[in-house]
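Handout, section B. The chain below has 128 residues.
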Amino acid sequence: MTPDALFWQSMSQLLTTNPVIIDRLKGSSHPRYPTVIYPLDYGYLENTTSGDGSGIDVWLGSLITVTNRYDAKTLTGILCTFDRLKRDAEIKLLIGCSAEDIQRIRDFYNEMYTLYIPNPAAEHDLSS
């Protein structure tokens, strides 16, 4: 197995073995910036740690439905963000995101630079 395939397999396993905690519902406002509205459900993976000391951030896309919300955790890709002012970089796991969802998330980070890295296996997972 290639190093890239092992990476995606490990990230997908992390996603399926840790609960997703949604602490910012779609349509809710940012706690410090009330005019900033979350376009999709946003939260973190429980029992994980990212660079800021909190859990790894996650976005739940529109391909997650009421019937599969807690069972289907297809890792669509990873969004890397870089905040020039804070000099801070983070990753966000994108779960069940359509191309439109990804653009909405990138628009949410309009003051930051973003890099989207698609999961090569996600296209197959999302179509089944």
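Note. The chain has one domain: 3-127. Compare this with the example in section A.
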